[in-house]
Amino acid sequence: MMKVILKIILTIIMSTQISNAQKYPLKEDVVTINGIIKATYEAVSGEAGEKRQWERDLSLHDPNAIYSFPLENTAGKTQQTTMSLKDFHKETDTMVAKTAFYENEVNREVRVFGNIAHVWSTYETRLAKNGPVARRGINSIQLYYNEGRWWITSWTFDKEKEDRKIPQTFDPQ
Questions:
Q1: pLDDT, tens digit, 9 for 90 and up, residues 32-57
Q2: Among candidates 106, 113, 109, which has minimal Cα distance to 137?
Q3: Gap between the Cα atoms of 163 and 134, Å rounded
Q4: What structural domains does the chain harbor?
Q5: How far apart are CA 167 and CA 94, in angstroms?
Q6: Cβ(100)–Cβ(90) under 8 Å?
Q7: Spatial contact of 155 and 105, defined as CB atoms under 8 Å apart
Q8: Which alpha helices (H) appear in 2-64, and where do they start and end?
Q9: pLDDT tens digit string along 128-143?
């Protein structure tokens, strides 16, 4: 009887792992540039304390993908910071444990040559669902197409400041 119970438990565990492994990437997330950009914004957005869709996000990116962004140090000096996707997820988890974070795209410019693409994605960030815009900026996203799907290789982003507004070419307003 114990062997039967163990077999059932093992079968359930294995089928759960297989179904989770096959869950991502979602085809609609990766076959078009529109799909992959939409999926990245959905994966990172959510309520305070809500677990983000990191498995989905990992499925959108090349395993060696990087994030690069300006970070102000304690002396007030801005320094470009680059990190792996997994490190970016850890940093984001720390932030969203206490803060809701909703980011949406408001404008996009895409350039494609062969199997590579560059996406300029203007975004707005809200710290409450449907709340006021807390900040705006531009994501520069690099992708490549391989094996019937798009892969993100890198993100570089910067936010708008009082003395540095988003250029009109990137701003739909």
A1: 999 999 999 999 999 999 999 999 99
A2: 106
A3: 16
A4: 27-170 (3.10.450.50)
A5: 31
A6: no
A7: no
A8: 2-23, 27-30, 33-44, 54-60
A9: 999 999 999 999 999 9
